[in-house]
């Protein structure tokens, strides 16, 4: 089976090649780059020397000869490619934001500035957060000979944040209060394009927020919360999302604050100099078990044991999402922390996970790694 | 004038020596270390070679020969030293948590496990967050010949978080809703003691939360919020504080979410695909100006210009606290971000700032640096 | 087939588990730790949670139930274990220095301070630098039912340095002049034991030499040079080896200066303001081809194309050794640069490579990775 | 006194502003930037906010109103500016390579590609390595009213390497054998211009050599060796210089191998399994003392005590050059290691040190820092 990747000079495209190259069902990789057509991949990414030998072609060739097509191009390019893939009944998995909003063109336009190329394809596309949409993705896959298969692979921040909230939302633990998602990303989230902010001396040995209130992943997170919720409110509630840059290559760590509803809240004595640890621990352990049970059939979600907390370094280069459940000292707010590798579960790994579900492969095929400790 | 430092083998003590060594009013430094008595400072900290030559003695000698005494010992040791300093009318500035709780022994005991040694001294001590307590500290200083001068130098996280909230709280902008303080620290916050968590390969190239709901700075932050508030509620409201470790030597970046009260909130249309940028910007700029005006006489607070955000790398080795003011997309929550160098404004620099106020020096003496860009 | 690992709480042992867990021929892993007997590996290394489930036992049990035994204990413990493995005809691969010196007890004692436990086993052991000793290792493996198989897995620095020199030495390109090996290692080379030098703030954002003239890898490098040389001199010539610490988790980069013999030297005009680039380039390309041809059957050696230079980040988590060949501006000295991952080709990966050769597996089994770009 | 800086948008220019802003003799700074004329410095470098307020002008204005002019422009721009400064008898200190080669236009052209603009000015210029040329620089300064004062501020690598070799060369300890200078630099050495090699993910967590045999600092190092040598050979001997990139912001660490002459060499027994430590230590200590005595009047050179080694982190943001002296295990080669901050002693600090000598100020004015430990 041939996997095609369009846009391999970016970091996500390169990571896709790395993962696909050891996928047991993929026998051949076809790859395209507009800027490097005709060159060999190891000239662009020397890490691949002697490990992966691919001569880069163009998008049309890749679509022509592939059984599944991944696009790792910047936002705004996937519509036309999806159409070509759909025409030849080839599943299309897009790593950009283009197909993350289903038929909601209005939101996409408001945040990304361009209209949909082909509303029909968007309408049939599915948002590829496998843990939430596995059944829909598999259903698409089963009818792939006759129906279009277009997947909008989730953004990196929305993946980490949504997975941390999914059990609480779908079990109805939360009130309709404000949800706050605070997150930090490694610098690779900024891509390979040369920008001052990602020049080594501008970001190394420094930690900073960026794009407060204006990061494009905000509406994706907000929409996910709405759809994952047991009893969604009439209107979306605006999530607060604050991204930060941490001086490291890879990883996203999300810290999410979600208000418990009144049935769940503890009534702790606020006047005590320190809240009673036992009640908090018991409540925490109850939610932890709920999370563990909720995700027990999801091979890439690791709900951490009591007392443990996630760290981006412990999921490095793997498709895992590590989640810890905590409760605030007053027993009123869930504090969810989750860690992913932004290049893998936040991009290329999740795309391959989608492919696995579409084609009925084992979901861990090509993604079996025990991560290294560092 | 002789400055004395007790406990110089830790990072904060070492940073104090660095700052005091170029203070225009300090002509001599006396330093003590229980573990390194009799050795030279450059044997412990080779960076000081030929720049600073001090033979380490013991606490008693330091108190005996100094005109001001700093203690950079771990929690639990300052009580006895303060007493000795007070007996000879020498101002005492403690960098541990011992004197951060004034007369509130109950809270201190609940979080730090030990009772006060001498309740009387604690009662007279002042919390050394200069921007909030400048007048009280100066008043103490004026009577230093006759009255005890004991300063509890603030914790690093409480400094960054409290300074970001002070204008909003004291001007009554906030509701009584939940305040959330999310923060990241460089690894030096963990001190020089060898602990697995701070071994290079355990924390480098990784980002993680720690001590969720149990960090000892929580009650200090909560107390500060209470006292800074215009109309403090009858009981303290529990702040949620989540610290993280970022793979860098220095710096703290706090991101604080504070709910605006109903007079301040905008009524924005939640159904729009994207909130109206102009209203948010105007509201933001109004608060930014309020902050800038509020802090205009505080030489170490830099309220950033519109659109700018703080980064720990830009305050490195300086006593600055950089603050940016933002408003959430629904106009209901203030998002405050602040950056300090945890070793300087979060420890040694702030201690020297306290000394400057006590002795009536220029507040910037010894702390005049234009920080380097990296 | 069951692989046994003794000493899994150290970084190299942990890395061995990671690699063995995906080795196609290994169906079961047995692991021992003196300090953590009875615990699960994910309690020691949380990265393995749900990816690898092993209850740690003791050395005797591991040797009893394994078909191959790896020891990742500190120096000085392998002798006794090797004996036990040999008694039950189980191949034994030691990652410490204990079996790196063959029968040369004198050198081992002079540098490591202890005598051999059992000179006979040492005499039969083979130094496991596969690219140099593949035939001997394979021969040992073929007779593993009847003859002892004990492998001294090479040190990390000697691996990077020796592989860069091997073609030049064995083809007789070098004079008997001084060889200088200058190298930098990531901090993981210092192990997991808590030492001040590897505490984050002591080594982060700083570069420094260490153990000049006294690093224990020196005699191993010197011995390798002697044995790899076409016409070895009567006595070993003392190599100069200078290790450095670079602020990163993994990787070794060696820069080796080797004087060409008089037949190889160019006679360039030293008075020119700049040496003639063309002659140097041609000479360089000639050696580069020699190297590429020399290593063409070694799957883990990548001789880089003209103009490219190795970087530790490009071999991360892989078993590759990247080598570049350059010639000094006067045409008299070979400048060889090589990069490995110190935890993989410099330790655990090379140990698995040895196992593959011993058992006649494909040499890349378990080690097939296209490295990530970062 | 007004100091002028031309080219302040680069890292070295920015560092110059930081240092000059606290220089006791500088009352005003005038600064120019072709790309940012009319803007305020804090818009380019936010670290300067409220610490340094300068409106950027152009080169002509700066030269017009300054009592000393620094140029931190890229190579090739200083000739014309020097001429203008000289015409109004203003000392000119150039941080580029333009004036590092005195009257040797041939070498400059061969490596930098352009001829001298005005050979006369070059002829009168002095190479600003103060420890070597202090007397010449001071003499220039004394006649500054009547004679041109143009200083070529040394390159960062040549500074670290030359200072490590100066005592050995000038005391005639070395043979005429090959000198090898191996060095590692922080990423700031690459400047602020956006280049792929300095994009965070391309160089973080990785160590690599670059420009082997072709770095432009090579002829500067080679020339320095020639001039520092007691009995220089008839022709320059080609030094081997290999630069590396280490993943950190600042710092250069040089490791220099210099062959002792036959009077200095020890005759050690090469056949011993380990060289006799005592002889080596005695020889080392003898050279260490020679170095310490040699540099005893140089306030920025710290010859480290026996057993200590330099680290870039220990000289951070200071003008120190830390040097350690070692001898190879066979007693035949000096191994010199030196650390500087490439932005300070390797650029801006050294430029200010030159100014201090020219104007007869205390050499440490503006550069008095005890460096922080990290």
Q: How many domains of chain A?
A: 2
Given the helix and strand composition of chain A, which structural class is it? alpha/beta
Oligomer: homotetramer
- The name of the CATH architecture of the largest domain in chain A is 2-Layer Sandwich
**What is the overall shape of chain A?**
globular
Return Rg of chain A in Å. Answer: 21 Å
What is the string of helix and strand elements of chain A?
A: EHEHHEHEHHEHEHEHEHEEHEEEH
Biggest sheet, spatial arrangement of strands of chain A: 8-9-7-10-13-12-11
Query: What composes the largest sheet of chain A?
Result: 7 strands, mixed
Query: What's the tally of helices of chain A?
Result: 12
Number of strands of chain A: 13
Average per-residue pLDDT of chain A, rounded, comes to: 96
Q: Could you say what the CATH topology of the largest domain in chain A is called?
A: Dihydrodipicolinate Reductase, domain 2
CATH class of the largest domain in chain A: Alpha Beta
Largest interface, counted by CB within 8 Å of the partner chain's CB: A-B, 69 and 69 residues
* CATH homology superfamily name of the largest domain in chain A: Dihydrodipicolinate Reductase, domain 2
Q: Which regions of chain A contain 5 or more consecutive residues with pLDDT less than 50?
A: none
């Amino acid at each position: 089976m041939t996997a095609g990747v369009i846009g391999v000079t970016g970091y996500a495209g390169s990571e896709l090649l790395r993962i696909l190259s050891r996928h047991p069902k993929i026998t051949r990789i076809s790859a395209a780059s507009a800027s490097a057509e005709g060159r060999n991949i190891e000239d662009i990414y020397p890490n691949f020397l002697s490990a992966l030998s691919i001569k880069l072609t163009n998008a049309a060739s890749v679509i022509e000869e592939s059984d599944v097509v991944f696009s790792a191009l910047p936002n705004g390019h996937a519509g036309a490619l999806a159409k070509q893939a759909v025409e030849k009944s080839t599943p299309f998995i897009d790593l950009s934001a283009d197909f993350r909003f289903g038929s909601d063109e209005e939101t996409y336009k408001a945040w990304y500035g361009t209209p949909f190329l082909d509303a029909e394809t968007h309408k049939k596309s599915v948002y590829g957060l496998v843990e939430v949409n596995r059944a829909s993705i598999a259903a698409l896959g089963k009818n792939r000979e006759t129906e279009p298969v277009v997947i909008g692979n989730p953004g990196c921040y929305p993946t980490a944040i949504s997975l941390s909230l999914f059990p609480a939302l779908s079990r109805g633990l939360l009130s309709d209060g404000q949800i706050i998602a605070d997150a930090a990303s490694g610098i690779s989230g900024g891509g390979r394009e040369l920008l001052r902010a990602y020049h080594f001396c501008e970001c190394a040995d420094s930690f900073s927020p960026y794009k407060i209130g204006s990061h494009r992943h905000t509406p994706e997170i907000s929409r996910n919360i709405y759809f994952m919720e047991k009893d969604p409110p009439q209107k979306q509630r605006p999530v607060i999302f604050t991204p930060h840059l941490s001086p490291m290559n890879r990883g996203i760590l999300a810290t999410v604050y979600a208000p418990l509803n009144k049935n769940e809240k503890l009534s702790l004595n606020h006047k005590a100099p320190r809240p009673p640890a036992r009640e908090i621990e018991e409540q925490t352990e109850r939610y932890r078990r709920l999370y563990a049970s909720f995700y027990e059939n999801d091979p890439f979600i690791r709900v951490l044991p009591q007392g443990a907390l996630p760290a981006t370094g412990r999921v490095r280069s793997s498709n895992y999402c590590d989640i810890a459940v905590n409760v605030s000292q007053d027993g009123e707010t869930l504090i969810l922390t989750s860690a992913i590798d932004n290049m893998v579960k936040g991009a290329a790994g999740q795309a391959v996970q989608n492919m696995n579900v579409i084609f009925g492969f084992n979901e861990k095929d090509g993604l079996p790694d025990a991560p290294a400790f560092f």
